[in-house]
Amino acid sequence: YGYQKDSDNKNKLVVDVYAAGIVKEIYRMKLSGMSQTAIANALNKQGVLSPMEYKHSLGIRIQDNFKTHEQAEWSAMSVKRILENEVYTGTLVQGKTSITARDEKNRIHKPEDDWVITKDAHEPLIDRELYQIQQHLIRQLFQQILQPEQ
36 falls in which pLDDT band (50, 70, 90)? Predict the structure, then answer.
């Protein structure tokens, strides 16, 4: 979400102007102090298509076994995925998982040292420093939830 495959080179990502604007707005809302749930609710209220519905509108068909409504809506989890995805800084991260030779459905999560990370692989939507600040804020909030005041 926020990028499309380049029509001339399917291995390259190019900015999807509409979706990129939504990604930037999500970061702006989060940094202004909104929760992921509040962001999702605001996007739904504004009638912004969720990532899956947006892909459907472009003619991209995606199977989703968890769809419970006629039209998929934004959720706190979809907002969280965008906020935590390093791809928006122009960095491509590949090789996080592998599949076993016997069973393609079982994925093995690889250690971070084995990932293939390519910085400046495509145009960033979010400044790397802004992304790092956002990740720091998310970690701080998560720690506060796990360690309530004694």
Answer: very high
Residues 6+ apart with CB under 8 A from 13: 3, 4, 5, 6, 87, 92, 121, 122, 123
Determine phi and psi for 92, rounding to 5 degrees. Answer: -105, 125
The pTM of this model reads: 0.81
CA distances from 78 to 6, 33, 68, 120, 144 (A): 24, 17, 15, 24, 22
User: Using an 8 Å Cβ cutoff, are 59 and 68 in contact?
Assistant: no
SS3 126: coil
Percent helix, strand and coil across the chain, each to the nearest 5: 45, 10, 45
